Amino acid sequence: MPRTSERYRDARREYILDAARRAFARNGFHATSMHDLFAEAGLSSGAVYRYFAGKDEVVVAIVEDNIRQIGAMIRAVTEERADGSFGAALAAAVETIQAKHRENGLAGIGVQAWTEALRDPRIGAAFEELLTGLRSELAEVVAHYQRTNTLPPGPSAESLASVTIAILVGYIQQLALLGPDAVADVPDALRALWPSSAVAG
Amino acid sequence: MPRTSERYRDARREYILDAARRAFARNGFHATSMHDLFAEAGLSSGAVYRYFAGKDEVVVAIVEDNIRQIGAMIRAVTEERADGSFGAALAAAVETIQAKHRENGLAGIGVQAWTEALRDPRIGAAFEELLTGLRSELAEVVAHYQRTNTLPPGPSAESLASVTIAILVGYIQQLALLGPDAVADVPDALRALWPSSAVAG
DNA sequence: TAGTCGAAAGAGAACGATCGTTGTCGTTTA
DNA sequence: TAAACGACAACGATCGTTCTCTTTCGACTA
Fold this sequence. Notes:
2 copies of one chain form a homodimer.
Chain A: H1 6-27, H2 34-41, H3 45-49, H4 55-80, H5 86-104, H6 106-119, H7 121-147, H8 157-178, H9 186-193
Chain B binds a DNA duplex through helix 3.
InterPro entries (chains A, B): BetI_C (IPR039538), DNA-bd_HTH_TetR-type_CS (IPR023772), Homeodomain-like_sf (IPR009057), HTH_TetR (IPR001647), Tet_transcr_reg_TetR-rel_C_sf (IPR036271)
Protein name (chains A, B): TetR family transcriptional regulator
GO molecular function, one term (chains A, B): DNA binding
């Protein structure tokens, strides 16, 4: 018979993750020690280790959540805008990412997560799943724009989806490194590159 | 009066950096210890520390070289192809990057460097310089394509340059994470997106 | 309903391991 | 032969983690 409810445990876990996110966004995964994390959360080591088996588990939890966030944002925006132009859908995705980044530093965590994916098999697998899943889903969206002649019919929908992902990933990278203001004009460029009217191919 | 020539010292330094690159590409900057580096180079700590003041200096040297490589490749390709189509120039840049990655794991080091740029001010400054310099140079190239009606005249050349950088950065990211085969069809997509003929805008 | 008991939560000191770095001493070469 | 190179042991610091002890709170009992 547990002393506390499951709701309490979940809330506590989330509280620790929030503190970890702040600390990690400030100094990076590796440069942030567990003691830094304890200080940021205002808790002792014993308290934190009751909810996470180790530092790796904290990192993985944060990265997996970050993956889920980014994936969900891209999916939501591109699908709901399937009737507008391709450029407008892309611009909307970018603007959503930017807004989220301003409030919780999404991009910084994301960039760090990509590097971690190269080393940690668990994170690597999660990213591969995100990217390949996103690619096939975006391929369907892209195919729609190919049929309506706003994207060239020549290349495969999958290859165009890869370019789409590249744009979003590269945008997040610049967002993290240069800040939101430096890339504020990207949405306009995307809308102009792929407007509603037909494009040569 | 030094025991050896300056040429010897330079060669030795480069030898150590090559070993470090291999070790870092395999395990990442942080997960690779100096002892790992000594083993990879087949040298003692004393030998390495005679050429580098510390681990940070090794990392910075490798990252700065990586920045120089990527910047040079993008500049060379986009400038020499200024008479072809924008898509062809982009595809050529991507193919050059892919070839280099196959031979020395360029993309993996690059992705790690981006993360390090968030934390180390020296690396961060180098990257900001690369990105902003590249952006203004690419803006001139892009402006050329805007004048010849192969890119829409509406958006600023700088904003289109940011999108161009995003594509290249995002491509490198996918190259590192998914491997060359998974993104082999990207060049074709780029050529199809921006062919020689005029594009609506 | 008040009191008691047991288990979970949390604090905090401390430990073992590892890492980056240094210092010493032999070796090599202009 | 003097100075740089290089090997190697070892050091201090730091980090992730554990262990012990106290505190807290829900459940059961009278």
